[in-house]
Amino acid sequence: MSQFHAVLFSQRSFMGGVHIRKSSQILGRSASSISLSPLNTPQNVSADSEFFRFTPQNMMVQIEDILSAIPFGKMQNFIIFMHFLMFTSSSFIIYNYCFFLMSPTYMCTYPDPDNAGLTVQRVCQREQFCSTNILNPPTSWEIDWNSKFSLNNWITTLDMHCSSSFEIGLFGSLFFAGYLVSCAIFPPLSDKYGRKVFTIGVCFVQVAAMACLVFVPNLQLYYLMNIIIGASQPLKSMIAYTHLMEWSHGHESLLSGILFCYDGFLFTLCPLFLLFVTKNTMLFLYIGLAINVIAIISFAFFYFPESPVFLLDQGRFDDFSTVIKRLYIKNNVDDQQQVKLNNLITRYKSQKTERLESRKHNQNADNQKGIMTTLKSDFSIVYNLFFMMLNWSCASFTFYLLNFFIKYMPGDIFINSIVSGLSCFILLIEGPLQKKFSSKLGQAFSFALGLSSAVMICFFDKQTNQIVLYSLVLLVAKSGAELAFAFVTLIHLELFPTHFLVTSYGICNIFCRMATMFAPIVAEVSNPLVPLTFLIGLNLLGVMASLVLKKKQQINLNQEELGK
Length: 564
What we know:
By secondary structure, the chain is an all-alpha fold. Among the domains are: about 85-100 and about 165-300 and about 370-555, Up-down Bundle (Growth Hormone, Chain: A), CATH 1.20.1250.20; about 105-155, no CATH class. Helix content is about 70%, strand content about 5%. It is built from 30 helices and three strands. It has a three-stranded antiparallel β-sheet with strand order 2-1-3. α4 (about 65-70) packs antiparallel against α18 (about 335-350), α22 (about 415-420) runs parallel beside α25 and α24 packs antiparallel against α25 (about 465-490). The longest helix is centred in the first third of the chain and has 29 residues, at about 165-195. The radius of gyration is 27 Å and the shape is globular.
């Protein structure tokens, strides 16, 4: 599995593209010099002892060294459990918009043309009884609750049977609007105040929002709660995710891959619930609400530590000492490991003053060189940034357009959702693809998968009987979107200089989220050729924009040739 899986999910959400353990090196963040509380370092350990030979005086101790020395045990297992527990709570809403907003099967009553005074019933579309321009409108209509496609969802709860496509698509657009605003506010705050407070606080926010959705069926309130849930999502998919990765040193790729596949598997699991357990989509809100409540109770009764990376990077050694002492007890750490780790922490603090002065000097230089100055000084950055904004927008828009549009696609929505949900496993081949070819070709290949499947979808009519074949084509389309997300994250490392790397992620993600806000609206257009045209056009644009990217080595070679 690729080492970049550790950053994939946070990139899908916004700008966690560089693993947080590296961010202090990339950004050059400084930390205040705070005195280190005693960490029980044995007094008889001399400067020439085995432990000091392990970290020689001429070697700078990095946060990476301390993380490597922290013994893995029960405390980390509990942290992993809590993150896996709470991570999918909002996914039960995000991944099921197609079911929440799917119109039921309607039965319309018409006068019997052969028998005066009698009526007949037949299946109809909502336009037939909602529109005033229909000839021979039905005398009445009702929901066919015997149909498996008639769900107790937001359409029935909020009586949106005759609502416009814009009003229905607005749910998803408002979610992305909240998401976009949150991305610009909370991630920087987490670098100042820590991960823990946001990881716990988001559970309280989502409990309140989901409780409103469960107990107060009001359209305007539902719109507002979708904004709030959208705003809360980056706190889980970025900040909480970062907290998990910072406590999982040495296991990032494995845990990230499992977490991502587990979360993506909900695309397959949720339709099975609706088919075999209940037709009430309120079940997903109950599950999300229960997950957050259980998480809050667990936080109240069990110790949940702050990120070690944050505490060390900010120089909060007293707090870090408290965390480590608890870890020693919880993980039953032996004396030798304690001495080794305490020695590293002491060395790290002793180097802090010198490191701080160096960082301040670098920061002053960086402050004088702003974003616009960087862009003006190197055209290759502007060139790659423009095409990466296109690639990010194409990947994000197609991924979410498929999620919203699936309820209008030919075939069976349940089979389509179950089969396409298996696309989460496509990421297991992302690493081998990148090694065998390149990130650039892998990204183009991902969009090509989406392009070819979108073209094939056009050849299926609405009443197709080839349900299994259609669902497999949809699986290819969804797999292409999944892979595209993986590669647009990965290729940044090969395109942009270190000092501009995180900024490039931020710019691309803000731009793509603004574009993705319109995906739910496009999905609701009555003419199915419109969404399919978007899928074909965006994937084609993604292929072309991927192929014209220039890696840093290629740029340097071109510049040398021009110099000659």
